């Protein structure tokens, strides 16, 4: 399997996603460049975290117009697995590949900390290696990670099993205390109807080595290998 | 448009130049300088750029060692860490800008120090910061804290360099002049180090990065090299505005450029902008520079040559390329959507020249701006009230009635409360190397591709420095090193940020001289080198100087990452021991200040030889994997260190039961700050070996008790649930800053 990690101007965790895939998980991975619409025959695509175009406009609003994104949209619509973390999630929402939007954290502050998320569905390209209800320890680091959507969309997401991750406490309960950014219904990640596109605010690529605090994020990448 | 201003002694004075300095300019040039030349002299001879008051003292610091590849004098210092790798690091101040405009002042401080590191070819992988604010009760403090913290986060988070540690300190001595000291470390292959030495006559000088605007003009001279008064807010236009997105592009483009054989030298345009980067590169290379100011990319029309020379617009770099490589350089920057313009050439005449519309507006010998710049031997004098401040009659300090309550008060005081509210606003994960996150004695990052780690700490107790700058300077150095040693990291080198009042005051120069002497002796005793840093004078407002603050950032090497040690207890049943000795020392302590409102007495004594042996014991114990935890005893003394070992655990807190004894006042026993002490926990089976190591080094080891339970119990004094201590400690700072319960 061949992975691609996109670098937009201002991407920051692209190098970490490359390291995670290439060195830790020993995968074949190629960097993809925002100006190049050629996906170089990859089988799965990662949109990394960061501040694309400085996020001086709405997060992800400029990156979605990058030449590579036209190809990503086509790839996703054809069923190809795409995962966006943090800024990548924001770009996926801006591109219309995922429903909803990410707004400023309720605290109005950037927040960087370890969180626990509960796997709500295993029927996505990036959660088949997880157990439903499993709790993963993965860090977040963002200023605009408060997931919002209107009630109709939220209900659809719940009904269709498109909520992939929720912030929970140590024992797996959805509580206000466990919600780091004010996301509606503690939503940390969602998928599209088909389950091939997943976006989440936590950074699974920063949870793949015990030395650095957690290996729980590996499962997301390993799922795509199944 | 060129400004048509005739230079007079008055104009020179308005530029911050003394009559003597102006006379020296007239003599050097043999004529009246142009307006542009006057601007160049004023920034290059400013205290900030020239180190004219500090240079003769800085020479006393040890700067070399077997692992030191680059000491002071370059953009940053470099330490060889083996495996063909080196670390590049430096700490720098951005105090005055941050007081006037906290967000952008702090943000551009971060941006500037990151440029100093990648300009040497290193990829920046970790930042620290040391922040000092006025009393938390001062009306301006919460505003400044929030602004500075969001500025550091706003820049650091967006540029992709993790902030892995730091310190935040409150003292009314900083009410009118806060300190923002920023540190960055990068890694570089030893065969890929770049220095800023302009060479090769005829080589093109290339300007890259952001366009030049009118921001930050005279930042180095008028903002950084003068004390504050009520009108200082009017200097706000001299504060630069940062653009971390452009900086991120610059990092990637410059590192890509340095992978290829296209350039001779590179330097960022920091303080004093285009002028200082040109002059310093030419100075180090023994060459000259000829700039065509008309070629500089500008943000707006009608910027004058004077402004172009002095602007401190951010995110700009100056490159000396190899002749004929201009297009290759341009292509790399263009890929990252950055501009690159040829703006001059390297010459062999030793002159700094700049032209405008074909007319030469600057022609100054480079040496006059660098090596031959004025150096002052300013008078020094011990403050007259020092002896009085150092005297402390312990009989006047009443013993507490409830020691548990005192501990709680200390743990929730601004200086000892958890700084989580601060560091949770910084990305500490990006780059994927952070092994020990903020919250232990030292941050530890791994070096990818090796088994090694780097330990980092930033420290200074300015109350000690105020009450005895020599001892304070010593302790700042040994405490930084101790923070690393308890973490299992061998300290190697440091970068210093020397924050003081006005050098024109003999008392301040005396503090400076004493602090440097203390730092020097401590460095020599511990085998440390000072490889980079900066001096920030004029930290005073309305004539009141800050407490002397030599902030020390210490860097060390951990040969095997898996041997690292953290400060919190790990296992119930572990034995708790203390290495070192507790004396009846309460002078200059946090306890005296927080509980009794006294900043008085002499700081704790220090035996450098004992300290060195103690640190070696810690390193050996870590290497032999004897320890479950080890924690430096610092502000708040034994009781606070013990509480921290219980409650700083990332998981649920762990209690402890200990008994302490000694023929000294109980408050000194529990809260005194005697130096050279470490609190450790370890399995009982490992204790005999630790006793043997400590015994051989003649270090006192005292068994105190065991880890476990839900309470922190100091027998005969108090017993408190650790969950309550933790909750209070974690939320105190945020509550005080935001005025609402957390």
Précis, in short:
Chain A is α/β, with parallel strands linked by helices. Helices cover 21% and strands 26% of the residues of chain A. Chain A has five helices and eleven strands.
Description:
The complex is a heterodimer of chains A (226) and B (742). Chain A is an alpha/beta fold and 226 residues long. Chain A is built from five helices and eleven strands. Chain A has one domain: Rossmann fold. In chain A, the strands form two sheets. In chain A, strands 2-1-3-4-11-10-9-6-7 form a nine-stranded mixed sheet, with helices on both faces. A two-stranded antiparallel ribbon of chain A has the order 5-8. In chain A, helix 2 links the parallel strand 3 (44-47) and strand 4 (82-85). Chain A is globular and about 45 Å long. The termini of chain A are close together. By secondary structure, chain B is of the alpha+beta class. Chain B contains 26 helices and 28 strands. A seven-stranded mixed sheet of chain B has the order 8-10-7-11-9-12-13. In chain B, helix 20 crosses helix 22. Chains A and B meet through helix 1 and strand 6 of A and helix 8 and helix 10 of B.
């Amino acid at each position: 399997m061949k992975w691609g990690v996109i670098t937009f101007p201002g991407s920051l965790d692209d190098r970490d996603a490359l390291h995670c895939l290439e060195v830790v998980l020993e995968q074949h991975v190629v960097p993809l460049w925002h100006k190049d619409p050629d996906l170089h025959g990859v089988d799965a695509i990662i949109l990394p975290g960061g501040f694309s175009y400085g996020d001086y406009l709405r997060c992800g609003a400029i990156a979605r117009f990058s030449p590579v994104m036209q190809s990503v949209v086509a790839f996703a619509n054809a069923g190809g697995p795409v995962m966006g973390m943090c800024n990548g999630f924001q770009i996926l929402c801006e591109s219309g590949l995922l429903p909803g939007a990410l707004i400023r954290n309720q605290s109005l502050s950037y927040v960087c900390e370890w969180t626990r998320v509960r796997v709500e569905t295993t029927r996505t390209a990036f959660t088949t290696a997880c157990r439903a209800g499993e709790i993963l320890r993965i860090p977040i680091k963002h200023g605009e990670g408060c997931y919002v959507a209107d009630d109709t969309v939220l209900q659809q997401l719940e009904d269709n099993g498109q909520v992939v991750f929720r912030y929970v406490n140590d024992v797996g309960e959805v509580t206000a205390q466990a919600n780091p950014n004010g996301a509606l219904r503690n939503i940390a990640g969602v998928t599209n109807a088909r389950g091939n596109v997943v976006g989440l605010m936590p950074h699974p690529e920063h949870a793949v080595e015990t030395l650095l605090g957690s290996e729980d994020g590996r499962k997301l990448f390993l799922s795509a290998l199944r | 448009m060129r400004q048509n201003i005739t230079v007079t002694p008055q104009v020179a004075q308005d530029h911050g130049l003394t009559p003597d300095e102006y006379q020296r300019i007239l003599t050097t040039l043999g004529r009246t300088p142009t307006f542009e030349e006057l601007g160049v002299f004023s920034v290059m001879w400013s205290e900030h750029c020239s180190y004219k008051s500090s240079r003769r003292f800085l020479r006393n610091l040890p700067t070399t060692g077997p692992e030191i590849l680059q000491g002071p004098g370059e953009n940053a210092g470099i330490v060889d860490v083996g495996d063909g790798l080196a670390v590049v690091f430096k700490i720098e101040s951005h105090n005055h800008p941050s007081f006037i405009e906290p967000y952008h002042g702090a943000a551009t401080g971060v941006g500037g120090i990151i440029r100093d590191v990648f300009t040497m070819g290193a990829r920046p992988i970790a930042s620290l910061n040391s922040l000092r604010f006025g009393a938390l009760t001062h009306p301006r403090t919460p505003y400044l804290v929030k602004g500075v913290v969001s500025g550091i986060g706003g820049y650091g988070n967006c540029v992709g360099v993790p902030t892995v540690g730091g310190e935040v300190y409150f003292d009314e001595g900083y009410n009118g002049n806060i300190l923002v000291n920023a540190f960055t470390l990068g890694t570089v292959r030893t065969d890929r180090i770049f220095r800023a030495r302009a060479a090769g006559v005829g080589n093109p000088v290339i300007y890259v990065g952001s366009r030049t605007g009118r921001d930050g003009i005279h930042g180095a001279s008028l903002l950084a090299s003068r004390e504050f008064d009520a009108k200082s807010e009017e200097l706000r236009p001299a504060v630069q505005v940062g653009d971390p997105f452009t900086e991120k592009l610059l990092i990637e483009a410059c590192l890509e450029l340095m992978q290829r054989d296209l350039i001779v030298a590179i330097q960022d345009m920091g303080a004093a902008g285009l002028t200082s980067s040109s002059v310093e590169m030419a100075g180090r290379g023994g060459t000259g520079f000829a700039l065509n100011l008309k070629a500089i990319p500008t943000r707006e029309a009608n910027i004058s040559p004077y402004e172009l020379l002095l602007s401190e617009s951010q995110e700009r770099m100056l490159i000396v390329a190899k002749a004929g490589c201009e297009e290759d350089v341009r292509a790399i920057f263009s890929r990252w959507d950055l501009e690159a313009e040829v703006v001059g050439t390297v010459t062999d005449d030793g002159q700094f020249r700049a032209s405008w519309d074909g007319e030469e507006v600057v022609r100054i010998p480079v040496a006059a701006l660098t090596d031959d710049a004025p150096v002052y031997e300013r008078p020094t004098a011990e403050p007259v009230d020092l002896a009085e401040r150092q005297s402390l009659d312990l009989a006047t300090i009443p013993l507490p009635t409830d020691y548990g309550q005192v501990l709680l008060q200390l743990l929730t005081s601004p200086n000892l409360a958890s700084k989580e509210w601060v560091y949770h606003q910084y990305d500490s994960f990006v780059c994927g190397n952070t092994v020990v996150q903020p919250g232990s004695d030292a941050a530890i990052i791994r070096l990818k591709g090796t088994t090694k780690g780097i330990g980092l700490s930033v420290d200074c107790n300015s109350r000690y420095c105020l009450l005895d700058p020599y001892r304070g300077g010593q302790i700042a150095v040994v405490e930084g090193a101790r923070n690393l040693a308890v973490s299992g990291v061998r300290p190697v080198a440091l970068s210093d940020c020397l924050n003081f009042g006005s050098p024109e005051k003999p008392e301040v120069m005396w503090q400076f001289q004493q602090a440097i002497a203390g730092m020097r002796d401590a460095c020599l005793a511990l085998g440390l080198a000072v490889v980079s840093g900066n001096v920030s004078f004029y930290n005073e407002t309305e004539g009141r100087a800050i407490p002397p603050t030599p902030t020390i950032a210490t860097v060390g090497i951990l040969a095997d990452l898996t041997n690292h040690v953290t400060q919190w207890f790990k296992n119930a049943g572990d034995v708790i021991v203390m290495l070192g000795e507790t004396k009846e020392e309460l002078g200059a302590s946090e306890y005296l200040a927080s509980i009794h409102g006294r900043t008085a007495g002499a700081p704790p004594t220090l035996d450098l030889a004992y300290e060195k042996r103690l640190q070696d014991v810690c390193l050996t114990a870590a290497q032999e994997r004897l320890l479950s935890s080890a924690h430096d005893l610092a502000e708040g003394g034994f009781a606070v260190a013990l509480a921290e070992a219980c409650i700083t655990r990332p998981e649920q807190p762990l209690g402890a039961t200990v008994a302490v004894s000694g023929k000294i006042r109980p408050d000194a026993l529990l809260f005194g700050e005697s130096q050279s002490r470490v609190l450790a926990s370890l399995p009982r089976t490992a204790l005999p070996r630790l006793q043997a190591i400590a015994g051989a080094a003649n270090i006192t080891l005292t068994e105190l008790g065991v880890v476990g339970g839900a309470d922190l119990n100091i027998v005969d004094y108090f017993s408190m649930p650790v969950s309550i201590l933790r909750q209070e400690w974690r939320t105190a700072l945020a509550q005080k800053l935001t005025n609402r319960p957390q």
